[in-house]
Amino acid sequence: MDATFTAEQDEIRRTLRELLLKRCGPDEVRTAVRTADGYDPALWATLAQQLGLPGLALPEAYGGVGCGTMEIALTAEELGRALAPSPLLATAVLSAPLVLALGSRSQRAALLPRIATGELTAALAVPGAGLTTALGLTGDNRGDWAGGGRSGGVQARRADGVWRLYGEADQVLDGHSADLLVVAAHTGGFARSRTLFFLVREGATRVRRTSLDETRSQSRIQLRDVAAEFLGDTTGGSADVGADVSGALAALAAVGDSAAAVLAAEAVGAADRVLERTVEYVKQREQFGRAIGSFQAVKHRLADLYVQVQAARSAAYYAAWASAEGRERTGGLALAQSLEALRTTASEAVQLHGGIGFTWEHEAHLYFKRAAGDELLFGPVHRLRAYAAEEARLFGGGEVAV
What is the third-level CATH fold of 7-120? Predict the structure, then answer.
C-alpha cells in the first residue's frame, strides 16, 4: 500500500474542506437537519453538480469520475468533520454500487448517470433493524434477516408479470426523501426461500423517524401491495428471476465492506475535528491562574486521544485501499476502531469542555450523538470485532489459533 495521496486526492480534500468551512458550520447543520429533507438542498446541489461527489466511484461510462473507494472515503472524512447531513452515503455508497453490480444494462443506463449528477437520490431499504447484518458486518448476510419462511420482513410476490411488495423496512437512511428505493425482499416461501432486490419509485409510505443523531436521517418504509421492478436482467424471459441469490448477497456483502471503510473514514473525520476543538479550548480555559491544557493530566488524556484517532485513520485508509484493490475485507475492523475512537474522543470532549460541554448550545453533543448513533446503527463495536474474528478463524476450541 502506498500511503502517499495523489494530487487529485489532495485536491478533493482541500476543496471540500474549504467549502464546508464556509457553508456547513454548527448553526447551518442545526438548520439543515430541521428541514423536510433533513439536509440543505442547495449544499447538496453544489456537492453533486459542481464537485461531482455522487459520481466519484461510478465508471465514466455512466457519467461518473471513475475513482475508487479511497476517494469517496476521503470525501466522507471531510463530511464527517463537519457532520454535514447529505444523501451521499445512502445514494452513492449503499445504493448505487448495488445498481451497478446487479442491475441490467438498461437499468444501469437509466439510473446511474442521474445518480452521478445528483439528480436522483436513492436509499437502501432492508427489513426490520437488520442493516448491519444485511451488509455482512456483524453476521452472515445469508441468514433470515430479510424475513425467512412465509412471513415477516418484506415479502415479494409475482402476479401477472408484476412484482408486488408487502412489509416494512426500518432504519432506512434518508428513505423519506430518496427518489428511488432499493429494497431487499424475501420471496419463494419456505420451500424456495431467497432474497432478491427490487426498485421502488412510488407507492411506499415513508415516515421520518426521530433518531438520536439528527444529522443521520432515518425512516420507516411501509410497503402495502406496492409495484416494484426486479433489480437484474430479465431479458432471458425466465419466470425464475433472481436464481443466482448467492451472487446478489455477495454483492451486498461487498457493498457492506466498502461502506464500512467509508463510514470508518467519516468517523475519523468527526473524531479528528472534535479533538481539534478540544485542544483549542483547553488552551484558552484557565483554572488556578493557568490554562488547563498545561496540566500534565490533561496533556496525557489528549495524547491518548491523538494516538487513538491516528490509529483509526490508518485502519480506515487501509480498509479503503484494500476494498478498492479487491483484497481482504477489513472494513468491519476499521469501522470498529473508528467508532471506538469517535466515542472516546467525543466523551472526553464533553468532559474537558467542563460546564459548557453538555449544553444544548455547544456542538460537542452533536459529535457525541453521532458516535452513539452510528454504533447503534452499524455496530456495536464488540460485534463488529467478534464477527471479523469469526470470519478470520482466529479462535478455535476456546484457544487462539496460531
Answer: Butyryl-Coa Dehydrogenase, subunit A; domain 1 (1.10.540)
Superfamily name with CATH number, domain 250-400: Butyryl-CoA Dehydrogenase, subunit A, domain 3 (1.20.140.10)
Report the chain's mean pLDDT, rounded to a whole number.
90
Q: Which amino acid is it at 42?
A: A
pLDDT confidence of residue 391:
86
Which set of grid coordinates corresponds to residue 352?
A: 474537558
* Four-point Cα dihedral 259, 262, 268, 271, nearest 10: -60
Residues in the chain: 402
The answer to whether residues 291 and 354 touch, using CB atoms and an 8 Å cutoff, is no
Q: Residue 399: its pLDDT value, please?
A: 46
Number of H helices, E strands in the chain: 13, 11
Q: In the numeric block, which cell numbers belong to residue 305?
A: 486521544
Q: Which amino acid is at 399?
A: E
State phi, psi for 321 to the nearest 5 degrees: -65, -45
The residue ranges of the chain whose pLDDT is under 70 are: 1-2, 128-129, 143-144, 146-152, 189-191, 235-246, 396-402
Measured in degrees and rounded to the nearest 5, phi and psi for residue 228 equal -140, 160
- The confidence score (pLDDT) of residue 164 equals 96
- What does R_g of the chain's alpha carbons equal in angstroms? 22
| DSSP state at residue 53 | G
Contact 136, 257 (CB under 8 A): yes
Q: What does the longest C-alpha to C-alpha distance in the chain come to?
A: 80
Q: Domain 123-243 falls in which CATH fold?
A: Butyryl-CoA Dehydrogenase, subunit A; domain 2 (2.40.110)
Q: What is the pTM (predicted TM-score) of this model?
A: 0.93
